[in-house]
């Protein structure tokens, strides 16, 4: 059960340009699954609405949110200091379709500020036999990659080596080397280079910008794998009341009775084939 | 101490209700607060058939306010009755159903369907939504049409009728008088003010609908002024709304002439906004030794 509570900032640091790693104390009964999000107040009475931020991870009573400054609200959040009080509502929404510790074979695709919930997914899959992450960055400015513990590949739209070049490197040399391309194009290239085999995975879980999610949806259809994608939308309430944050759905949604589902309530994670993006 | 108010023979345990469209069917908030403490729940507008609503983005934040262009997305009256209304019977509060339509016939269809639902205490007629092309504000800005649709609805309705007024007119008292002349039992005001926000980097409107309805504390002084004007213009009860965020705001509306108040955007700031406002009103009454909340209604000359 979600709730609204006031809490204190434990730490807030910039881990890459304009990307902040915000840690908050949360109550003991705060139980989230990977892919859920919280609504967080920005401590500015002229900015009424809480900001939806995806949960990166939560353990030992510390909630970790990693966000990019995207506007005035997130700019305010970036200024939070240890000891500051914030209001949080959550966890809310539906996350990825597995529970902490479940054994699922998952290919994780994260793009940009979509990477934080993908890290949470990887951590939740600690008992899984097969987990691979492909992390897409704009440029050489990588973040959170060191926190990934399982097999992972880094990509970049603007720099990096070819997959062939990457394949020729030793495991040690590959560390922190980016492959040129985006998470989806690199996934396909890795398969051609025999570094990735889509048939080894039960599902794909993705979070990132809309063009990436469209490519993931197409990739999933081509490979015949179910893909779960996390959508982003401007929200007001975050609890399913205002109908501000809908996405178009292929079938009629059970709650809204039209081809629209609430991103905050039925989502943010949807089965890719169910949504029109 | 009496906090109860009466609107057309319907007794509200306190003057605080929810503003349509900001509270879903009410059930979305049940996880966060006690619905039983509300004077009334005003549900999201419902039409004769499901409405898809507008494209996204539907929401844009502005200084001390927000724009919305949801476009009255709703599941249609059948699902609303069979699911939402049924669930609402579990709560001890008044249910007021907001009704929307593109044409007079569509409004009447909903009224006819809902007339027999005992749980519904009143209808609120949305003739003021700025985000749909037909119906909505197209009715609400023309006094002749307001009087006509009000009397058409009154002829059919077995429950008291609240006409919800738009502020997007030259003289809101003219519209309020038209509603009263048409037989309205009550008026609620204000709906949102039409606004726009432009993304200067992309040189595009932020909302897919281009324009949206401005709500929140930014519009409160406009709303208070309009309640004050309408109080002087009509004799039927007034439900005041527009940016109410605190109990002080609610009291301000009542002093301007509102018999009850509705809380809208504040529900998005915190889901228990209504509870805080109800408690704050009681504290204010205690502090100022007010025995009956109705004493302050319209007390400002």
How would you describe this structure to a colleague?
The complex is a heterodimer of chains A (277) and B (301). With 277 residues, chain A is of the alpha/beta class. Chain A has three domains: 3-92, Translation factors (Elongation Factor Tu (Ef-tu), domain 3, Beta Barrel), CATH 2.40.30; 106-230, 3-Layer(aba) Sandwich (Rossmann fold); 231-277, Dihydroorotate dehydrogenase B (pyrk subunit), domain 3 (Ribbon), CATH 2.10.240.10. Chain A is built from six helices and 17 strands. Chain A has helices at 72-78, 115-124, 163-167, 171-174, 183-192, 210-223; strands spanning 3-16, 19-25, 37-40, 51-54, 57-59, 62-68, 85-92, 106-111, 131-137, 151-156, 178-180, 203-207, 226-230, 246-249, 260-262, 269-271, 275-276. A seven-stranded antiparallel β-sheet of chain A has the order 4-3-7-1-2-6-5. Chain A has a seven-stranded mixed β-sheet with strand order 11-10-9-8-12-13-16, with helices on both faces. In chain A, strands 15-14-17 form a three-stranded antiparallel β-sheet, with no helix packed on it. In chain A, helix 6 links the parallel strand 12 (203-207) and strand 13. Chain A is globular. Chain A starts with a strand and ends with a strand. Chain B is an alpha/beta fold and 301 residues long. Chain B has one domain: Aldolase class I (TIM Barrel, Alpha-Beta Barrel), CATH 3.20.20. In chain B, 31% of the residues lie in helices and 21% in strands. Chain B has nine helices and 16 strands. Chain B has helices spanning 77-88, 104-114, 137-140, 143-156, 172-181, 220-233, 247-256, 266-269, 273-287, and strands spanning 5-7, 10-12, 16-18, 40-42, 59-62, 65-68, 94-99, 120-126, 161-164, 186-189, 193-196, 198-199, 204-205, 211-215, 238-241, 260-263. In chain B, helix 4 packs parallel to helix 5, helix 5 (172-181) crosses helix 6 and helix 6 (220-233) runs parallel beside helix 7 (247-256). The radius of gyration of chain B is 18 Å and the shape is globular.
